[in-house]
Amino acid sequence: MARGVKKAKKPAKKAAVRRRPLVQGYGREAGFPISLAMRAGDYVFTSAQGDHEFDPAMVKYDARGLVVSDGNTLPSRTVADETRSALRSLDQALRLAGCTLEDVVDASVWLRDPRDFHEMNKAYGEFFKKNQPTRSIFRIDFMFDCRVEIKVTAYKPR
Amino acid sequence: MARGVKKAKKPAKKAAVRRRPLVQGYGREAGFPISLAMRAGDYVFTSAQGDHEFDPAMVKYDARGLVVSDGNTLPSRTVADETRSALRSLDQALRLAGCTLEDVVDASVWLRDPRDFHEMNKAYGEFFKKNQPTRSIFRIDFMFDCRVEIKVTAYKPR
Amino acid sequence: MARGVKKAKKPAKKAAVRRRPLVQGYGREAGFPISLAMRAGDYVFTSAQGDHEFDPAMVKYDARGLVVSDGNTLPSRTVADETRSALRSLDQALRLAGCTLEDVVDASVWLRDPRDFHEMNKAYGEFFKKNQPTRSIFRIDFMFDCRVEIKVTAYKPR
Q: Looking at CB atoms within 10 Å, which of A144, B12, B54, C86 has the fewest?
């Protein structure tokens, strides 16, 4: 930037920044052989997040094998609460990898009960006001005791 | 840039085109805080598409919360029809972002009824004749009144 | 390459290696219009893999349309066996495209029965010891007669 030097005849060569491939996992969760976020090149992947705890010794299943309780002691909360909690967890994971929810380009949402769609949709919209990510949404059965899970992919070139 | 030097014999250097990161959403759907397609660098993501309409005021659920009707007034149609419709919708979304189904590299397919597999598989194959994308397929419950949904990722460097 | 010219004082210019976009599918499965792996730029996508065979003429469904049998003649095996088999199949597919499980950055796991979680989780962990991929896991119904399916995305710049 300081360009007042007199005899600088040759244009300064730009440093030949070599594009370095970067693969780096961030964040851990006890008992799970996973990262919470993973940067790979210009993209950051996340593990799906839901507002749940999980105590393997306390999980209860029904006759079909569906999770009735995962041993968590979380207070009663709405789907909107769970949606915001999941998105905040994703934001935290993304920040470990150098980006935020603003860099999200694609999202997947899963609901245990389709009747929760409108409440989830409204809370979700609070987080994505512009350049909204693509999104796919399905009803599914969770491994954990929660009503919504969300996974995102972010794009943040270094 | 202004290089009015006289004896410019040497071939003009190619403009050093800086690779510009591009993140851009395309397409909207009323009531959904999403884009139908999103370009992020060399990839284009899509939201899952199914052959359905959706009138929030008219959705009917069964006792388990599954969608019985989403208020649409679409005519009766086969799974092959629905598959082709979903892929055409995806192609339209991709075109907004500067690519087509020919650039698809990965796909996900969801069916409401596994018995629809063969009919879907055949119709799907009509659209992907060469360099066929990877694909994953599952039975799932939809938020909407349709029998198949499809989501794709395309690769189209600018 | 022939550089025997005498007065070559100027440092030889590096060959301007043009970054070539590469899209290439690898591997086939009879009856499926898909690739088992697909390289697109620096990433390699896979189709979901499970430890199953599939004979379209022999598939049996229950009243809800769920797959009871897919005609395979595989021996009885544990979820850990199936997990390892799926991951080995994914490794084979990735190798066709020039990478391995070590290059995986994101994974999705689906289980037919949530009670299989711990056994799957332990076997899965054997394959991912460091820089562990992000992972999402759900209960789902399969098109095929197996208890676990896995899909991965790898990052391996050329």
A: B12
CB spacing of B45 vs A105 below 8 angstroms: yes
Contact C155 A23 (CB under 8 A): yes
Residues 6 or more apart whose CB falls under 8 angstroms from that of B30 comprise none
Helix (H) or strand (E) run with residue B86 in it: helix B79-96
Query: Looking at the complex, does the CB of residue B100 fall below 8 Å from at least one CB of chain C?
Result: no
**Residue B133's pLDDT is what?**
98
Rounded Cα distance, A157 and B22, in Å: 10
Query: Residue A98 above 90 pLDDT?
Result: yes
Token pair of A38, please? 């993973």
| C80-84, C95-99, C119-123, C138-142: least confident range | C138-142
DSSP label of A120 = H
Of B31, B40, B110, the CB nearest to A105: B40
Tell me if residue C88 falls in helix, strand or coil: helix
CB contact A110 to B (< 8 Å): no
d(CA C11, CA B79): 64
pTM, 2 dp? 0.86
% chain A with pLDDT above 90: 63
Q: Is A74 on the interface with B (CB under 8 A)?
A: no
Query: Around Cβ B90, how many Cβ atoms within 10 Å?
Result: 25
Q: Which residues of chain C neighbour A144 with C-beta distances below 8 Å?
A: none
CA distance B67 to chain A (A): 7
Distance (Å) from the alpha carbon of A138 to chain B's nearest alpha carbon: 5
Considering CB atoms only, which of B24, B45, B47 is closest to A131? B24
**Which tokens in the block code for residue C16?**
């301007």
Percentage of chain B lying above the pLDDT 90 cut? 64
Q: Give per-residue pLDDT as tens, B15-68.
A: 455 555 699 999 998 889 999 999 999 999 999 999 988 777 788 888 888 888
* Least confident interval from B29-33, B35-39, C45-49, C78-82: B29-33
